[in-house]
Sequence to fold (221 residues):
Amino acid sequence: MRAMVLAAGRGERMRPLTDMCPKPLLRVAGSSLIEYHLHGLARAGVREVVINLSWLGGQIREALGDGSIFGLFLQYSQEPHPALETGGGVFRALPLLGEQPFLLVNADIYCPFDFSRLALEGGDLAQLVLVPNPEHNAGGDFALERGRVRSDGGEKLTFSGISLLHPDLFAACTHGAFPLAPLLRAAMSTDRVSGILHTQVWSDVGTAERLSSLELLLSRG
Fold:
């Protein structure tokens, strides 16, 4: 299985930390955010990973190289600035990801999740990892009912930024910048999205305050 790590964002809410350093390379507890994901993907048996780049992307390429230090083969999908949003970035990288389902991970989260738990069944187009709602997203994103993800109804949970996607999810797309969420909602409307609830450590490292909180949490073990 291949994977893609989303690393092209500007990190506006993290400024000034991200003025000279791309957000995926911000360090917490001794490692950069993106390194945690690469180690986790390697442990799950992934060997090929695509990383999209935009803002200060050269620093990411220089820091990670060809991926051999992680036991991975890394390829890079260069995007313009501003970047192409999640949907557009993935669509641009599809030629590197192949025709089979692939893992998709936001670089700017921390989550020690076992990626090998994810698998698509039947005609599903996606499987999402959902987490309890943090304070900054109290209303949640999607509902999880008996293993199926719905855009409406039920108590909402937060999308973790970890998913397994089938390339067919993007069948009707064209090149350009566009979000991922409308594609997921369309697939949910035909019951083609499953979900897993993750209740352990997860952090959306979207602000300097959350980065500091995560550093404190990890330093305490």
